[in-house]
Specification:
640 residues; alpha+beta; six-stranded antiparallel beta sheet
């Protein structure tokens, strides 16, 4: 696992690349690859790389060149089928000088051009410089496990990097806030692909490539892969459970190749436990597992992790954390570089810190909920969809909309008793309803939060457009498949994978995600929705398949997740910090927020009248972003 960076002058072939600047950009991501650093510069192009050595430790240095020296690559990730590809490429006449997966990509490019990505199985973000074509080829893996940011500057330079901070090290990068990204952030809790919080700075979307040459400097990303849900295309075979285990075991097995210590996260949930069970089946030595426990029972699931560890006799490593572990708060803004509001980033950071004490590579269970329909919100949405499908939209808007206005709000109650929320959802279209269910601040809250100036700048933009754009590309009439698809395009990559990448790379730890193997997803996406969500049981087929491997205690309980006690923090130890941050001159003078509404949010929460913890956390993270990223990077730019 590594970090990549580069500068490509798309206008001037003979342009001199600033070596000191490229070095500075590369060093901002030192944490991603502390083992080695490399830079290559020639007229018009500069490539940089930070290396975390995992495979072919002795000869896998980057940038890496083809035998004739005309093709160079910087690469972040792992290619799991590189050995088979290597043999195929050798038969085509290519000569290898290393045993690294990186060199395989070089010759795959030379053999197949942009289609090389279709031959790769793994997680990756890479840049290939082809001197013969005077072109730069950027690529990102199918699910977006590895990040890749880029921007074209006014001086003709295209710059790219594994993290946004790499680009912010360039003095000529504009720091203009992209106002639609503010709307998206307060809706989703992150800025969804392909946007970033800065205007003119982009994330290369998952499953896309970008080929830029001096004769085509304004190229746009091209999609090479997408999830194709077609649950009507398969007759469920009698041995479907065995097929699932075979697919899962193979996805885990290809991710167990490493020349450094390897282990697994073990939370005690279905997904991480499944990965550990498969690993134990595939190796004779005990699996190294790690988990964190909490000092309060309401947040602690360590007993379930221990149950799995004992069953498979793993070498288990556990550390107990205080629930009130909020000292990382100010670190998060610099870790994520743009506003990011998932508070579970803190325990995720801690479990990565713990894992690094024992191993360099870990396998995780991320992705299981998206792939096999495990989220509780899927059940709620499908239950409501049964009602929505019986009445026309006009009727629903009139009747349920009126009931939603009249019914009292009851955030304190279990969701089944929150009739106001249900009525409001039934009055919406399916996309509007699902957006509402995943929103940090709902549409009305965002309208009250934004200043008049920000509303004018948004010009009517609404985050629903993110869902509408993706839904237009999802070729299915199946509602469960559609919301799974939406989550894969937004929440999975923008929240889950972003969280894990930054938290793990902060500790120079590589995380591999077998449940996001694209072959497993291509297989599972053809399964009928009825075997993923059966009645009120999410991940039904996965759980049934795992019954020989895990107890019902692991498979059929409600999972708590990595929650943190925000409500209590904001009324107790973080009370003053919250008020001082959200009502600071920086926030009030930013021009984005209504001061009276900010004051009301803080007051209502701290008095106990309402629970605004999710909204307040998102605002606290936005303030930290303005203070630690915008202010700091602007100072760096002025100095440079």
């Amino acid at each position: 696992m590594c970090g990549i960076a580069g500068i490509f002058n798309v206008k001037e072939p003979a342009a001199v690349i600033n070596e000191a600047l490229l070095h500075q950009m590369n060093e901002t991501q030192f944490h991603r690859g502390p083992d080695e650093g490399g830079i290559h510069i020639e007229p018009g192009i500069g490539l940089a790389h930070r290396r975390l050595s995992i495979i072919d430790i002795s000869t896998g240095q980057q940038p890496l060149f083809s035998e004739d020296g005309n093709v160079a690559i910087v690469f972040n990730g792992e290619i799991y089928n590189f050995q088979a590809l290597r043999e195929e490429l050798i038969t085509k006449g290519y000569h290898f000088k290393t045993h690294s997966d990186t060199e395989t990509i070089v010759y795959a490019w030379m053999a197949w051009g942009p289609d090389c990505v279709k031959h790769l199985r793994g997680m990756f973000a890479f840049a290939i410089w082809d001197r013969r074509q005077q072109s730069l080829f950027l690529a990102r893996d199918r699910l977006g496990i590895k990040p890749l940011f880029y921007s074209t500057l006014a001086n003709g330079e295209l710059i790219f990097g594994s993290e946004l901070k790499v680009l912010l090290a360039h003095a000529k990068l504009p720091r203009t806030i992209y106002t639609p990204a503010i709307e998206d952030y307060f809706t989703f809790g992150y800025v969804p692909e392909p946007s970033t919080i800065f205007e003119g700075v982009y994330k290369l979307p998952p499953g896309h490539t970008l080929l830029i040459s001096r004769d085509k400097p304004n190229a746009t990303p091209v999609q090479y892969w997408d999830v194709s849900f077609d649950p009507s295309a398969i007759v469920l075979p009698d041995d479907v459970n065995e097929q699932l285990i075979t697919q899962l075991k193979e996805a885990v097995g290809v991710r167990m190749v490493a020349e450094v210590p390897l282990g697994a996260f073990l939370s005690g949930g279905v997904d991480s436990s499944a990965v550990v069970a498969m690993m134990a089946e595939l190796q004779s030595d005990p699996v190294h597992t790690c988990s964190i426990a909490f000092n309060e029972a309401d947040y602690d699931e360590s007993t379930f992790a221990k149950e799995v560890a004992n069953r498979y006799k793993t070498d288990h490593f556990e550390k107990t954390l205080a629930v009130d572990d909020f000292e990382l708060l100010d670190l998060l803004a610099t870790l994520y570089d743009e506003p990011y509001a998932d508070s579970s980033a803190m325990p995720t950071y801690r479990v990565c810190q713990l894992a690094k004490e024992k191993v360099t590579v870990v396998l995780s269970g991320d992705g299981g909920d998206e792939v096999f329909a495990g989220y509780r919100r899927y059940r709620w949405h499908m239950n409501e969809e049964k009602v929505r499908s019986r009445f026309p939209l006009g009727f629903r808007k009139h009747i349920f909309g009126l009931l939603g206005e009249l019914y009292p709000k009851a955030d304190w109650a279990p969701r089944v008793l929150r009739a106001k929320t249900t009525f409001q959802s039934l009055a919406r279209t399916p996309l509007e309803a699902y957006l509402h269910s995943v929103s940090l601040l709902n549409h009305q809250q965002r309208k009250e939060l934004y200043s008049s100036n920000l509303k004018r700048e948004l010009q009517g933009y609404h985050s629903l457009e993110v869902f509408q754009r993706h839904a237009a590309n999802c070729q299915t009439d199946d509602m469960l498949s559609l919301i799974q698809y939406l989550d894969m395009k937004t929440y999975l990559v923008g929240d889950i994978l972003t969280k894990v990448d930054r938290a793990s790379m902060a500790h120079s730890l590589e995380v591999r995600v077998p449940l996001l193997d694209h072959k497993l997803i291509e297989w599972s996406s053809r399964l009928p929705s009825s075997v993923k969500l059966k009645g009120q049981e999410g991940k039904y087929i996965l759980k049934k398949s795992l019954e020989p491997y895990l107890s019902d205690n692991i498979l059929y309980r409600d999972k708590k997740g990595f929650a943190v006690p925000l409500t209590k923090w904001f009324r107790g130890p973080l009370k003053d910090k919250l008020k001082n941050a959200l009502l600071s001159e920086r926030m009030l003078d930013s021009g984005y927020f209504d001061a009276d509404y900010l004051t009301r949010l803080v007051s209502q929460h701290q008095s106990g009248l309402r629970d605004h913890s999710a909204a307040l956390w998102s605002l606290l993270m936005f303030e930290a972003f303005l203070r630690q990223v915008v202010d700091e990077s602007s100072t760096v730019a002025r100095v440079a």
